[in-house]
Amino acid sequence: MRQEMSMVQKQTLGLTLGPRMIQSMEILQMPLMALLEKVETELQENPVLELATDVENPPNAESPDWAEKGAPEPHTAEDGLVLEAEGQELHIDQEGDCADFDRLDRLTSLSGDWAEAMGDSKPSRGAVEQASDRQHDLMQNLVGRLPSLQDHLCEQVTFLNLTPEDEALLRYLVSFVDASGYLRTPLPELAASYVPPITDPGILEVVLEILQKLEPKGVGAQSLAECLVLQIPQKEPDADLMRILITQHLEDIRHNRLPLIHKKTGFELGPIQRAIGKISHLNPRPGAGFDSTPVQYVVPDLFVEANDQGEYQVRLTDGGIPEIRINPMWRETLRDPDTDPKTREYLKRKIQSAQWLEEAIQQRRSTIKRVSESIIRRQRRFLEEGPDFIEPLKMQQVADEVGVHVTTVSRAVDDKYVQTPRGLFPLKRFFTGGTTTSGGEEIAWEKLKKRLQELVASENRTMPLSDDDLVQKMTAEGFPIARRTITKYRKMLNIPSSRQRRIWLENPPPSPSD
Questions:
Q1: How many structural domains is the chain composed of?
Q2: Residue ranges of the alpha helices (H) in 30-142?
Q3: Which residue, 408, 430, 452, sits at the end of a domain?
Q4: Which residues pair with 316 in a beta bridge?
């Protein structure tokens, strides 16, 4: 086999995504709060951008008092370009790159207001009030730090009458308790990692017993069974039976194999069911109540409201996004033939970036509005009669109607929420597949799931419906559906199998196969 090098000319057709298109797609996919953060960041990083509400009297380059408003005039000195900013003089070498312009950007954006930073003019009253309102809203929305599980346990340790050595060991064990309240690291490993190492692990076992007596009950357990046993009240009449069921028959309880438990333990079904009912009230994750994850509030991107004629109208809730504009002063500086070439190149990049951002935001508004209007037109019954009447809808149908690619629809609805007369829903909620009934009617999968729930809720729990029984009943009602689909939807709805749903009687009749 001979290897050789050669030059070949080849013509191909492909699509290359430019920075402008990438930014447009990213902004389209952003939810409202992320877009707000993006705009705020751009306002800080791009000096040519400003809030439209901050300028009560927009600057006019032709005004005779333009030079008196504090706008600096860059001029060239022997050692480079000199600009004044906040009382400091920057010398930018003509032979250097744009790094000094970026430094100028950071310096002059410290105040957040170019007019104030570049001259003697003061920010407008509206700008000051708006900044104050934002600061107030930020302080109001700060979430205070909630006490963690370790904080709660250490607080209890301070009230115990322990020797300094035992208290140090107890706090050491507390530091290894996870968010669920379990001590999953083996004691020999904990003893070896302690400083100095503990040669007798029995010392830690004594301290562990103290830890397991703290609140919440069950904390410090090393397994699920131990966690549940620790929570059994001392004066519980069924304590012995509960311990037997927890330590020996948790898997049988999960699969509802009560006759097998009755056969192995000798207890009657009545006491077994009563003990299982009490076990179900125990907490398998005692530390979960101290989860400090803050609640994520959903801000709707859209509002859907009915007008006087009964037609549903879509309104975007992007009023919280600041209105931005490009400062005309910098456009004039860019067009000025006397402007230094490096200054012109710097301003050109910044103005271009600002224009792309403005256009991307406008395109986002237009695309989301058109896509959501198409969705609402097709899901009118959902809004009027409720979620049970959702229509089968695919993204491709909306894309064809709006005249965009299906991926654009996907980005437009991703992580977006709409406030409707029926409640708050993610936009993706309105897209669902479906099937055709025996009568030729298209029906959404959501309706089939609801009917499945109704059948299970009305069944005889002593003789629950198997998946095959559910298939027969659904088919008889005109909903042809496969058994594997029934099983999939049952699991999606967290509906146990027929054996797990069964209620056992003292003298149960033979059960059908599941």
A1: 4
A2: 32-45, 99-108, 114-118, 125-140
A3: 430
A4: 302
Mean pLDDT over 11-24 rounds to: 68
Do 403 and 497 belong to one domain? Answer: no
> Per-residue pLDDT for 346 more than 70?
yes
Q: Are residues 206 and 253 in the same domain?
A: no
Co-location of 251 and 307 in the same domain: no
Which domain does 449 fall in, by range? 434-501
Residue 372 has which token pair? 């959501």
b/e map 24-40, b = 16+ CB within 10 Å:
bbebbbbebeebbebbe
Distance from C-alpha of 456 to C-alpha of 458, rounded to nearest angstrom: 6
Q: Number of helices (H) and strands (E), helices first, in the chain? A: 23, 11
* Arithmetic mean of pLDDT over the chain: 78
Q: Does 317 have pLDDT greater than 90?
A: no
- Residue 255 falls within a domain, yes or no? yes
Burial (0-12, 13-18, 19+ Cβ within 10 Å), 172: middle
pLDDT surpassing 50 at residue 406: yes
CA–CA distance, 314 with 420 (Å, rounded to integer):
10
Residues 181 and 269 in one domain: no
Q: Is the pLDDT of residue 344 over 80?
A: yes
Stated as kind and residue range, the H or E segment containing 400 is helix 395-402
CATH number of 161's domain:
1.10.10
